[in-house]
User: What shape does this take?
Amino acid sequence: MELYLDLLSPPCRAVYLFAEALKIPYEFKSVNLFQGQQYTKEFGELSIIRKVPVLKDGSFVLTESIAILQYLAQKCSVADHWFPADLQQRARLSEYLSWQHLNLRFHCSKVFLLRALHPFVMGSEVPKEKMDAAMEDMKQSLDFLEEKFLQNKQFINGSKISLADLVAIVEMMQPLAVGVDGFKDRPKLLGWRDRVKKELGEKLFNQAHEAVLNSSDMQQKLQNNSEMQKLKSSLSKYFR
Amino acid sequence: MALELYLDLFSQPCRSVYMFAKKNNIPFEFKKVSLMHGEHFGDQFGKINMIRKVPALRDGDFCLAESIPIMIYLAEKFQTPDFWYPTDIHHRARINEYLSWQHTAIRMYGSKMFWLRLLIPKMIGMEVPKEKMDGALEDLNNSLNLIEEKFLQDRLFIGGDQISLADLVAIVEVMQPVGAGLDVFNGRPKLSAWRDRVRVSIGTELFDEANRDILGAQEIMGQIDPGTLELFKPKILRFYY
Assistant: This one.
């Protein structure tokens, strides 16, 4: 089984952490997003959507981290708490996995992309107004994470870690790459983060986040080749 | 207490849930939440779903938001036919892949087109600049292309030979810009044929009933008082404009 990943991408980290923590055997296939490798002919033949992560299990190719995580959970018969069989518990977990696409993921990504890539794509620093709006949206998502999804529980789904925590934590780590600490002044989220780290193993967690937390390297890694022009063009619309 | 579904049929995910529940004869009480009248901001609804979005489900003490988990919950609780959300690992993965992808693709761009055409001009008191409309149309077309080229290909439905939750979730998003007067099926015979199959599978009467509000949206939205839109303005403009 192959997993096509770039650990700069939060959904890739979720898949990586799950596979590694559960010792699921796979081959790590690196896709360097900042070199535009997602735009190569070869990658396009694997996945027309040109995003990561991608799973390839024999001839079966699957995109979307949420689908990949559920596939791995089902295939590898992992411990129940990761994706509970109980109807209401599973529904609660799925509620988070659905909500997060256009909320926590969307807004944390936006904060990261605006700070990290606006200069590269648009040739200027991000306007203050845009950044303030993105930060406000991210704050609202974090408020919901605390008040609706976590509340006073140890983890999102109760007393044990699940796919929801994996998917949430990787998104929350992303803005740290550009110096925005979503955990600041949020002791509840800090406590949760520490519990998640402990469950996964600190070494593994830190290793997964090494690339994204070395932001000083990031600007230098951005290539200006023909593949990256495609990224520039799609991001420029996002930034407008 | 009967199972309650909190819905507004102008909302795409509400239409999916409604069609699924009705098609499978799942007994429920329809609790209307009129978004245009800001009913989702009321105290009562806030107790059902603090995120204040529809659809929402209440089953005894259990409240649930998000259309996809709601339909999966209903499918399992009421033991609906397997094809809606197959237990086979590969089939299910294929459907999960669509259900995940669509949030930041067709859902986002179909909604955006609806707002840009019908309601944002009222909010800002002028026509939306051509550049923004063209950008939005391009994004929508990219999503429609991917639905045809990756998710449908030569299959009858997204998951294969039979309808599934993926088609229910897809059809409502594809129909949303149609409600705003943009015929996305024009020049897309594959998509049109799929729509016809979905409509027949669901049942033409149920399909048409569920889509009545959205297909009458141009007329209804045309009568909306801009004052009513003030509730939505900041969030909508920030997200879509």
Remarks:
- Chain A is about 60% helix and 5% strand.
- The interface with chain B takes residues 48-49, 60, 62-67, 70-71, 74-75, 87-88, 90-92, 94-95, 97-99, 101-102, 106, 133, 137, 144, 147-148, 237, 240 of chain A (CB under 8 Å).
- The mean pLDDT of chain A is 94.
